[in-house]
Amino acid sequence: MNLINDINCSWINDLNKRANINVLSTDKSSDWLIIGAGYTGLSAARKLSELHPSQKIILVDAQLAGEGASGRNSGYLVDTTLNDGFTSNKELSNYKKKTDIYKLGIDTVKKFIKEHQVNCDWNETGKYFASSRDEDQEKLTNFSNTLSKLGFEHNLLNKEELSKKLGTSFYNLALYTKGGILLHPGKLVRAMIDTLSDNVELIEQSQLLEWEKDDDSINCKFRNNKIITKKIIFCTNGFLKSLGIKKNYNFPLTLTASMTRPLTDSEFKSIGEPKEWGVLPVRPMGATIRMTNDKRILIRNTAEVHSPFKMSKSDLDKRSLTQKLGIKKRFPSLPDDILESSWSGIVSRTRNSSQIFDKIDNNVFAAGCYNGSGIGVGTLFGEQIAIKASNESTKEINIIESRDKPTWLPPQPFLNLGIHTRLVYEKFRAKLDV
Ligand SMILES: Cc1cc2nc3c(=O)[nH]c(=O)nc-3n(C[C@H](O)[C@H](O)[C@H](O)COP(=O)(O)OP(=O)(O)OC[C@H]3O[C@@H](n4cnc5c(N)ncnc54)[C@H](O)[C@@H]3O)c2cc1C
Fold this sequence. Notes:
The protein is of the alpha/beta class. It is 32% helix and 23% strand. The chain has 11 helices and 18 strands. The strands form 3 sheets. Strands 1, 2, 8, 9, 10, 11, 17 and 18 form an 8-stranded mixed sheet that branches. An 8-stranded mixed sheet has the order 5-6-4-13-14-15-12-16, sandwiched between helices. The protein has a two-stranded antiparallel sheet with strand order 3-7. Helix 2 runs parallel beside helix 9 and helix 3 (89-116) packs across helix 9. The longest helix is centred in the first third of the chain and has 28 residues, at 89-116. It is globular, with a radius of gyration of 21 Å. The mean pLDDT is 95.
């Protein structure tokens, strides 16, 4: 099935259109082939080009590079996440391993940005885990205890304090963590494309259809041509499963999001002129909502089992309506017609929220499955899988490999049924916060 993204994502529309797109039009061979040009694949390519300046490296994407989830996410570069479960000591130590990986992810993005002087609207503003329901106090108190044990600076806020900070009186309580960055995901991934070195050949709009490994090479079939490569790294995240990679350990979820136009000065004044902020939900299926530095509001409040290859316009319109209502109930004074764009994107999940970072076979590697936190972790895993595939080791690889590994998933149709039931249950529990 062809992978086709909807084209109305404000983050991507903010960027200049790219020219001279190179599509696969002859058979090729390479030392290295990377499939998928999001944060993971672009970082893998950047690292391989440093490690092997005289080898032939090809990076391929089914669509335009960076225009999958990497260019259309909500832009939270996280140091902590809430919905991971961590009450016993064992869970605490797992949670610490997770935050160690998040920290390495932030450091990797920071280093890239500094080295290449990237402007991606980086704002170390922290983030809120907010809820409109008083019952969530206990969950936030437990989370606060966990963060205290691990030394993360944070504080709890009440309705009045939140309403001043956010410009909406929708939320009753929140936990604010000082760590975590808000950024423009499209600008970040575009910078990764623009700074690719000359020894990486970027091929776009060329979907890998089938691959097969023989003794010393991997044969990759595209629509009209093929690439034969010595080593391959799969960086297709939500599409790992459809390429047969770790297919009993990951599954794709489709998310949709919408963005408003910039608020006018008087609209912005009417909500108290808040500084840029980002709210994550306390319940997994609640809304992620963000006020950008240029006064736009972003909302993401759906996650579902859907074909990862395409969302039809009518399906997207329905989800866009849910997002319009999500904004309206938080900002009733704003006009109804301020949504500028709505889009869908694919993430990859595992059962226990762990990531994939693996040698699949001799000369075959894969990294992905960041369970919605791929800006930092994807950038980190891309670099580190390139190093691992080059038979080198780092302290980062040791930390990544000490994480809990993804657990096995049941086969279809039980898998989709199970996921669907869980999502419906979580949606019910999130209720008003969607
Ligand atoms: C709406 C939304 C909000 C999100 N919010 C956040 C957030 O706030 N913070 C955060 O950290 N993460 C967030 N995420 C998740 C984050 O975007 C991903 O984890 C991250 O982009 C993964 O990067 P990647 O490079 O591994 O995968 P992707 O960016 O998905 O790139 C994979 C690439 O592989 C290509 N591909 C797939 N199949 C093939 C094939 N057969 N042949 C060739 N190419 C192929 C695709 O076209 C795609 O470009 C969000 C995601 C979505 C969709």
